[in-house]
Amino acid sequence: QVQLVESGGGLVQAGGSLRLSCAASESRFSRYEMGWYRQVPGKQRELVATITSGGTTNYADSVKGRFTISRDNAKNTVYLQMNNLNPDDTAVYFCNANLKDGLRLVVGNYWGQGTQVTVSS
Question: Quick check: 102 pLDDT over 90?
Answer without folding.
Answer: no
